[in-house]
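Hi all, long-time lurker, first post. I run a small reading group and we've been trying to get comfortable going from sequence to structure in the token notation. Rather than ask abstract questions, I figured I'd post a concrete chain and ask someone more experienced to write out its structure so we can walk through it together at our next meeting. Sequence below, copied exactly:
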Amino acid sequence: MLTLRISGDGGHSARPHMTQDVIHAMAVVITGVNAALDRRLDARDATVLTWGRVEGGVAGNAIPATVELQGTLRSASVEVWERAEELVREIIGGLLAAYGIDWDLEWIQGVPPVDNDGKSNTAFNRAAAALDGDLEIVGTPQSSGGEDFAWYLRDVPGAMARLGTWDGKGDKQDLHQPDFNPDERALILGTKLFTAAALDWHPENRDDSLA
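-- Answer (accepted) --
Happy to help. Here is the structure in token form:
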């Protein structure tokens, strides 16, 4: 999560040249940071900066003295995740230098991207195959959503799997939708999968030549 506060001299909208027009500066940041990131980062890293909150001003004919932006930056690349703050600060500083205004960026580092371990993926696939067709493992595109499980993967090898819970009837509902209603029978399959994966990974049963 990043929160940007921009401050300068406010004034009447008829005389923006006598102000530092933080509203205009804010607009430059909103469009400019994304544009710069598009050229500074590899598109294959799937880095997404989204501004979700914009606050500033109380009247249409007055330029305020302060504005505030808040948003999130997510990336599929651990390298980008680690250096994103430094890069964004550099870009914002360059964009706002021409305005001679003050700004402050608060950066709260979120979770890193999930990066599954190949051997753990293989264990999941073998476990699913052992369930005699009750469950199928399919690959999914990497999500840009934040996931705390990523912290485990920075210390120990592992893999995250999403458990399908749609019963095939009606519309599919996302996890965060208010009418999300999972088919609880999926819990049985999920339990079987993780049990089989744990047994497969146990040293007495594990065949590293297949991993």
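A couple of things your group might point at:
Helices lie at 22-40, 78-96, 118-129, 149-153, 186-201.
The domain at 2-107 is CATH 3.30.70.360 (Alpha-Beta Plaits).
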